[in-house]
Structure formats: C-alpha cells, structure tokens
Amino acid sequence: MKPSNTSVAEQMRQEAEKLAQHTPSATAKDFTKEEALLQIQKLELRVAELELRNEELSINNTANKTIAHQHSTFFQHAPTAYLVVSETGEIITANNKCSTLLEKELPQINNINFSTFLAPDQDLRFRKFLQSIFKHKKAENIELSLKTSIPLIITITAVFIDDIKHCLLQMTDNTNFRTELDLLQQERGFIQDILNGQPAGIYRIRVFPIEKWEIDGWRNTQHPPYIMEFLNDHFCNILGVDSESFKMHPSVINDLIYSQDKVEFARLNEEANEKVIPFRWEGRVIVNNKIKWIHLESIPRIIEGGEILWTGLLYDITEAKQLEADLKLSEIRFRNVFDHSIVGKSLTTLDGGLSTNHAFEEILGYSKEELKNVSWQDITFQEDIQHNAELVKKVTSGEINSARFEKRFIHKNGNLVWVDLSTTLLRDENNAPLFFITEIIDITERKNAQLALQDSNERLSLILENSPIAIWDWDLETDIWFTTQKYYSMLGYEPESGYPDRSVWLSRIHPEDRKQVQIKIENVLERTGEAYAYDARMLHADGTYRWHSVIGQVVERDLSGKPKRMLGVRVDINERKHIEEKLRESEGKLSALFASMTEMVVMHELVFDQNGNATNYLITDCNAAFTNITGIERQNAIGKLATEVYVTTDAPYLEQYAQVAITGKSMEFDSYFAPMDKHFLISATSPEKNKFATIATDVTALQQIQQQILSKNKELEDYLYIASHDLRSPLVNIQGFSQRLQKQTESIKSQLIYCEMSPMVELIITKITTEDIPKTLDFIFSSVTKMEALINGLLQLSRTGRIKMHIDKVDMNKLIAKVAAAHNFQISESTGSVKVENLPDCYGDDQQLNQLFSNLLSNAVKYRNKNKQLQIKISATNAFNKIIYIIADNGIGIDSRYQEKIWNIFYRTHPQSQIPGEGVGLSIVKQITERHHGRVWVESEEGQGSTFFVELQKNKWE
Ligand code: ADP
After folding, report:
1. What is the atom index within ligand 1 of the atom nearest the CA of 945?
2. Tens of pLDDT along 842-871?
3. Which is the closest atom of ligand 1 to the Cα of 907?
4. Is this structure's pTM higher than 0.70?
C-alpha cells in the first residue's frame, strides 16, 4: 500500500506547507509553525487512510468474482480453523481445521451452538464475548478452553461480518504456546523471587545516549536521561518508594539523595556514562525523614542506538556505617581509656613487643621507651615467670580465652610490685592471634595486708584447731550445715569435717536438752527468728556428757531480708558449768550466811547530783539482821534512799561511804547513831565502783560495858593513887620510929655499962640490945625500903595513867637520840654500843614516849650479858597506818615461860638477882602504849637477847 507521489493528499500537504511558511495571514496568528506542521501531519494521515480504503475497495471489486471460489477453497483447507457463528453462537459454517480441532465431522458441527464444545465454565464468557462483538462490531480476542479429549486452549479472534450479521471466528490452538508461556511465566516468577530475595536492591536503568540528554543532564528531574527498567522489592524497600513511582518518575532517586551528596552523585554518573565504566557510589539518602547510607554499584552495557543499560546493586549500608562510626568512636574511646586509665594497660605482640599506657609505666617505674626494649620476662620476678608463661601458653593455644592472676613485677628501683593481672588474646577473624591486651592493678599494699592476714588467719586457724571451739556454717535454704573437724574431735570422736548427720547428732544430745534444741532448730529453719543460742549436754565418746554452748549469727539474707545463712560456734563449757555450779553453791552458802548473820549487812549504791557529787545512797539489799536491829522491814528499805529509810536530812555517814565507794578503800569506824540511839561498829567496803556494803555490829551493849570498865578503871586508878599516896605517911612514920628505936636501943646499951646485973641477965640483955633488936630493926628498915619502892612504883604507874597527854607528831629520831644520850654513861661503862636507824615519825605524847623508850633502853643495859659486848639496835617498820619501833639487844634474854608475865606489875624473872629493879618498868611501857592505842610485845630467847616491839599510830587519832 504505497501512496503515489502525485496523490491528492500530497498536493494538499504541499499547499499546507506553503501556507505555513509563507502566509503570515490572520491564520498565522492562530497557528505557530509547529502547530501548523502538526495539522499538516494529521491531514496527511487522514488522506493516507482514505487512499488505503479506496485501494482495498477497488481490489475487492475487481477480484471479487474470480477469487470467490478460491476463497471458499482457502476457507475449507486453510491451516487456520475458521467458523462462522450467529449472534447466539450457532455455527453456520466451519472449515476442516475447525472440525479437526473440535474432533467432530463437519456435518456434526454445523447448526450446533459453539458453546457445546466449550469447557463448562467457558459458556458465559463466550456469550458475553459474542454480545460485545455484535454490539461494538469490531474485532476482539478471547481465550477459551475446549472440552476435547485433550483439553485445548484456543484463542478466538472474532470479526463481525456486517452484511450477513454473522461473525467470523478464527480459532488458533494455543495450548502449546500457553503451556510455554506458563513455563516462562513461572521461570520469570522464579527469577523475580530470586531477585527479590537478594539482600541487595537490584535494578536496571536504560540511559539515553548523551546527545539526547536534556539541559541539566542527569540532574534534570523532569526529563531524566534514563528510564527505570527493572527493580526488585528490596530496591524499593531500601529507598522507601514503590516500583510504580520509580517507573513513572525514575528521577525520584535523585530527589532522595541528601543535598550535600547530590553533586558528587551526578558527577560520578555522568563520568561513568561518558566513559562507560562501572559506577560506584556511596552516599546518603533521606528515606522517611531519616538518613540512610546506601551503596550503589552498576555495570554498563551499550545497546543498539547508543543507549546504555546499567545493571546494578543497591545496598543499605546504614548499619555498617553506624558500626564503622561506632568502631571509630570506640577506637577513640579505647585510645582514651588506654592512655588515661588509672589501670595499667599494655598491648603485647606475640613477638614480645610491649606498648604501655602511663599507669603501667607509673606502676613499674619505667618510661615508655625503656619498656619498649624489655620483654615481660625481663621485668617479672624470677619465681613467677614459669606460672606466667604457662598461662600465656594456655591462652595462645586457645585452651582458655583469657587469664587473670597475681604476679610480681620488678620495679625499676628493685622493689617487688604485686599486681593483679588480666590478659586477653585478641584474634583476627580467622582466629589467628593478634596481640595480648593486658591490665595490671597495683595490689602491693593489699597483698602485703593479705599476706599478713593470711599469716594471722593461719595462726587463727591453728589457734582454733587447738582451742575448744568448733565452727559451723549453716545454709538455711537447703538446711545443709558444714562443720570444722573440732566439731567431732571435741567430743572424742574421730576428727572429720563436713556435713553432720542431724539424726546422729541429735541422738548425742542429752535427752533432757534435746527438745529445746529441736525447737530452736525449727525456729531458725522457719527463718523468722534471728537469735540461735543454747547450752546443752552432749554425749562424749567416753560415755559421759559434757556441757556445750552454741551461738549462731545470721551472716547472709535473701532479697526479702529473711535469714539465709548462719555462722556459729560450739564451745565446750563443761568446766565453766562446773565452776558455775560451785559458784551457785557458794553463793547459796553466802546468801545463807548473809541471811543468818547477826551483823547488819546492807548493800548500797551512791546517788550523785549533776555535778557528780554524791548526795545520797540507795539501799539495794539487806539481811534479816538489818530488820532485827533497826526494826525496818526489808521491803521498806530496798530501793529506797538512805534519807527516806532513816528519816534524816542527810544520808548518814555519806562522806565516809562515798570515800569507800569511790576509792575502793575499806574503812572501819564506830559511831553512835542518834536516830536509833545505838552504837555501831561499822565496816564499809566497796565491791564495785560507786557501790558499797556495810557490816554494822550493834555494839551498844559492849559500849556500855566498856564505859563501865573505863569508869571502874578510873575508880581503881583513883584508889591506887590514894592508897599509894596515903601508905607513904605511915611508912615514913614506921621509918622514923624505927630509927628512933635504934637510937633508943643504943642509949640503953650505953647505960647498961653502968648497971650492976647478974652475968646471966647481963648476957641476955646484951644479946637483946646488940643482936636481937638491931637484927629486928634491920628487917624493919629493909621492909620499909622495899615497901617504899613498891609504893613509889605504884605511884609512878598511877601517875603515868593520870597524866594528861598532848598528842602531837613526834620526831622519833630526836626522841631516841635524847633517850640514848641519857643512858650514855651506863652504855659506855659497859663498853656497849647503840645503833639507831632512821626512824619514821609517829603521833603521841612526847614525854610519855620518852618514858617508854627510856624504860626499854635501861632494861636492855640492865639485863646485858656480862660475857658479851652489849649491842643495842633501834629500828622501825611501817605497818599500814601504824609504825612498829624495834629495840633489840643481845642480853640475857627471857625464858619463854615468863614472856607473858613480864608485863605484870612487880613481876621480875629473877627477883633475887643483884640487878636492881621493882618490876614496874614494863608495866609502865604497856600502859603508855595502850594509852597511845598501840601494842607492845617481846620476842626473846634466853641467853641470846630480847627484841621489844612497840606499835604506835602513824596518824593522829581522836
Ligand atoms: P625490873 O626491871 O625493875 O625488874 P621491869 O618491869 O622493867 O622490872 O622488868 C620486868 C622483868 O622483865 C625484869 O625483872 C626482867 O626479868 C625482865 N626483863 C625486862 N627487860 C629485859 C631485858 N631486856 N632482858 C632480859 N630480861 C628483861
């Protein structure tokens, strides 16, 4: 259908062109050049169509008759199946091929509705198809299934035959094609699935030749120089745009690119296109307001027409980028941590190269450079190298991942540094060792303390093992309890440690104590109670029972605060129990004694004011004697203040008692207690600070007797004085008249010379006057002298007792010196010596003490041993608040039988001896010491010497 060159249409077109180029008429205003050309083209097309029609019609007309027959033959034998159907689908006519497809002879086909050959569900579709053909009167296609022996898929192309109101159906067997198509479809789905299943986005872009690119090239989003041919789901997902949008606006990817990366993206694209080289780009896109890192990579292939097909992959590398950033950050952090950590850190390569941080250098005292040149062995303490090396080996071999141990480094200054070392071997992805990361913490101080503790712990466990204490550890959640060996051995069983069998152990508790222990255990296991302590008797291996004391304490709690673990000890308290029993017994005895004592025993506690001064005292206990003597009931006294009990303004004897309770020094005094009108001898003692006990004896009766004795003594002394004083005058008379009688006898004697008497008478008278009377007179004289001495002695004694004493401090060194001086003559006469030691002062009456020591010293001289050189020693000794003066001689000594008697008046051990004396001296000594509230006694051995002891007061007394 080639249009002729001179056709009417061509002529029209030429005219129109002319018009468009040369006629700037009113029409030119309405049409631009382009619009005009368009109009011309349209016209040309219309003309071509008309020409074609005409041509077909003419051909039809001329050939119509001649080829009608041919057509009928062609129709029947055509390789394509044809059939003509009515509007209802009734087959008017069909050709041979149709008969073959429908598997029916032609006569069996004609006048049959085509629907009967169709598969059951196809009927309706076919009808609708026919309706559409007859309605729209234009060619249409439909694919239908035939219910032939092998179901066939056919494509029917229908053409409405207007003149006979029939429809020509061309029927093509598509079964094979359809099957292949299905296969292809499946394959395509498979490939699609594979592509979609890829972790990467896959795409294909067709890019126009550069000469066809519009202004702005790759950046032109309105008319981008490419079209998106394929993209998989992943591609869309990564960029957050659906595939339709991509296909419609392929430049959408350009819009997504992060503004700062756009220039580089376009530049690379243009370059790759220009040079037709693979394209690679990594950059940011904004998807759903978030930045995503993507990686694009595509390979070009030039196709016909100069277009380039880019097939590529798109990866979302956001995470990787983030990881990379994190890695960078962590590397920076690691560097920071490494360099500035207070923990010593080092990286050691496998060949021993060491890089360290500041703390590491600080701990070991070396500089970084110095450490670079040493291996770890060089700075490790010899003894620790092997252990260290073994662990390194284990880590390197992969037996363990890391190692942590304590070791000693050698500090640059030579000292050992204990460190807690952790090391990990870093490996690459192929598990090949890279380097060791090591951390060290200086634990020298802790280690030293730990060693000291370990030492002390060892000692402690040694002590524990040797002490009567067993330790147990009780897990209350599992009710398992662990004990030390001592737990068994302390009861004489084979020593073992571990988990005791409760039933065995309970059976060893004394039956009387078992129940209470069981209850305690249950309480603890219920985990409500805290305390766990009891004393119980345990069966010893030797069959006896021993008292044990058990104390436990909660050492761990669970999250709700309930006791979880308990630690405790078991101690053998058998001895203590026995002592306690004895104590109880003796306490019983004591309290019985306390109750039955006739002396009042009262326990008190001091009461202090704000300034700490004792103001009163409480009665805390008292015995029955207290009530008997005072008449105050026990319950009215205990817990009450002294002022309440005794109804006084001030607490009685507070000052003395406070002194006793505060200083702890006991005190004894007697006193008249006016509120009760009684005399007490009070002894106060302090059992503990601020407490005191008084034992008071009612000495009222004794006091009265003493008073009576005193007054009787006084009377006696008075009698003694009067008697001795009054005896002196008759004695003087006897003496005087005896002397006169002597003189008178002498006169008689001288007168007798002149008297004449018988010789007999003269003999008798001479005998009377010269012998008898003088002899009698001698007796009288010596008796009088004796009596005078006795009376003088008595008088002296009486005077000594009556003389008023002036008690003052006496300088004993001075006093003795004076006494010795008085005896100087006799001592030197007997070639004796007196040795006086330094003597402490005492209180007393100076004159009387002079008398006392004079008597003792003169006795020592008088009763000296003639065969020895006299030696007298005077010394003293302190005895609490007394002083004992000692006068020792080496004289004749005193027979032990007489040592008590020598203190009696007029007693002399050798009354007939030549040694002068009346036996009064020692009586006076005794009297004086007693008046000084002192004592005197003698220790002596006959022939060896005597030692007299005089005890006097160190302090002044009332
Ligand atoms: P007198 O010395 O006057 O006999 P005393 O009363 O002084 O009386 O002594 C009583 C007796 O004690 C003495 O007769 C003497 O036997 C004995 N006596 C006293 N002092 C000593 C002494 N130092 N050595 C031995 N005997 C002594």
Report:
1. 24
2. 999 999 999 999 999 999 999 999 899 999
3. 10
4. no
